[in-house]
């Protein structure tokens, strides 16, 4: 029994040490790879030590979530200077994005990439709709169609956005968006909002043509162009008939 206990304990200790060493080596390799990518693609604006420059803010303490969002949605590297970063095709692979996120997170604590359990889109859609109306609709529109802000800035449309990026945007507050940390909106409430947005993506409009889901703006324009245009056309036709 003594031999068995010693042997089992020794094997467990050896296995645990090997697994820990392998994990540490993998993390160090990711940090090293992320550092190389950062120097080649990001350091010009953000500084070699993430301290920031006149061209870009410091990244110390922004965390993995902010890096994953900005790079994963193609907003970074920045294509040109403007009121805000434009979404564009992603420049890196998933592995490279992960390496960059790990590297930035290694330089200072910050929000982490969300757990998959909050990204399923299977939470409370009703509560998510109420939370979205209270916290997001004033900029993004109640249907998530987006809207204009001041000085050339805008709230982007939220259709067909990966749940991970929606969560990370709420968590980190990119561009002009406020930060909704876990005190403002709990992880469960963020999951509810993601479920509501998924519901909007999958549910057809019961009112017919959505006209961009922009509400009175697009509806009024439609009436002016097609409604009044049709009335004028009918008037001209009736007059021609009478003559």
UniProtKB/TrEMBL annotation:
Subcellular location: Cell membrane
Residues passing through the membrane, by range: 221-240
UniProt xrefs under PROSITE patterns: CYTC
Record bears the keyword Transcription regulation: no
Annotated Cytochrome c domain residues: 29-108, 123-201
EC number: 7.1.1.8
Pfam families named among the record's database cross-references: Cytochrom_C, Cytochrome_CBB3
Keyword Iron: yes
UniProt topology in membrane: Multi-pass membrane protein
Known catalytic reactions: a quinol + 2 Fe(III)-[cytochrome c](out) = a quinone + 2 Fe(II)-[cytochrome c](out) + 2 H(+)(out)
Classification via InterPro entries: bc1_cytC-su (IPR009152), Cyt_c-like_dom (IPR009056), Cyt_c-like_dom_sf (IPR036909), Cytochrome_c_Oxidase_Subunit (IPR050597)
Protein name: Cytochrome bc1 complex cytochrome c subunit
């Amino acid at each position: 029994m003594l031999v068995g206990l010693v042997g089992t304990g020794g094997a467990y200790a050896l296995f645990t040490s090997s697994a820990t060493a392998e994990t540490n080596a993998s993390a160090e390799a990711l940090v090293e790879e992320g550092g190389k990518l950062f120097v080649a693609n990001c350091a010009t604006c953000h500084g070699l030590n993430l301290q920031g420059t006149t061209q870009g803010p410091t990244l110390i303490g922004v965390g993995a979530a902010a890096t994953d969002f900005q790079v994963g949605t193609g907003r970074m590297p920045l294509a040109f200077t403007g009121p805000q970063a434009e979404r564009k095709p992603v420049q890196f692979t998933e592995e490279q994005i992960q390496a960059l996120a790990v590297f930035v997170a290694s330089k200072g604590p910050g929000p982490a990439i969300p757990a998959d359990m909050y990204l399923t889109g299977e939470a409370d859609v009703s509560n998510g709709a109420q939370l979205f109306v209270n916290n997001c609709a004033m900029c993004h529109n109640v249907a998530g169609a987006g809207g204009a802000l001041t000085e050339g800035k805008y709230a982007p449309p939220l259709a067909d956005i990966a749940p991970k990026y929606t969560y990370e945007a709420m968590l980190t507050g990119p561009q002009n968006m406020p930060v909704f940390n876990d005190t403002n909106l709990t992880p469960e409430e963020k999951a509810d909002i993601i479920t509501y947005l998924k519901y909007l993506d999958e549910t057809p409009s019961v009112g017919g043509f959505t006209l961009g889901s922009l509400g009175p703006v697009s509806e009024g324009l439609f009436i002016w162009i097609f409604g009044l245009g049709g009335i004028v056309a009918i008037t001209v036709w009736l007059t021609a008939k009478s003559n």
